[in-house]
Amino acid sequence: MSKNRIAWILFLLLFVAAAVWLALSYKDALGELSHRNTHKAVLEKDIEELRKEANQNRMHLEKLRKNPDFQDATARQELGYGREGERVYRFPPEKD
Predict the structure, then answer these.
(1) Cα(73)–Cα(82) distance, rounded to whole angstroms?
(2) What are the start-end ranges of the H helices in 1-87?
(3) Does residue 58 belong to any structural domain of this protein?
(4) How far apart are CA 94 and CA 96, in angstroms?
């Protein structure tokens, strides 16, 4: 065999090896991209839910600041307070 033919065979083998390596790297990169896109969608959904919750909390706080009747009802319900002359009964929480 001539040196020229050996050089061509080595070049071809090197080219095939490089092409296989690039194909495998590309496959791994696509898998990673798919995983990251899925994770991004989950995080965006979580962000949207947290924004809704923050907005609800903001509206609840605003009602507590501005509405004395709401303040009274909230204190009575959550803290177990009662009005003067009322009897407040507290029961233990139900067990599941």
Answers:
(1) 9
(2) 3-66, 68-79
(3) yes
(4) 6
Nearest to 64 by CA among 75, 55, 54, 51: 75
* Predicted TM-score of the model (pTM): 0.56
Over the stretch 8-67, which tens digit does the pLDDT of each residue have? 999 999 999 999 999 999 999 999 999 999 999 999 999 999 999 999 999 999 999 999
**Residue 67 is part of which domain span?**
3-79
**Matching residue, tokens 């303040």:** 71
Please report whether residue 88 resides in a domain: no
Q: How far apart are CA 51 and CA 35, in angstroms?
A: 24
**pLDDT tens digits for range 69-93:** 998 888 888 887 777 888 878 788 8
Amino acid at 49: E
Judge whether 93 lies within some domain: no
Q: Which residues are within 8 A (CB) of 90 and not within 5 positions of it... i.e. 6 or more apart?
A: 80
* Contact (CB, 8 A) for 17 and 23: no
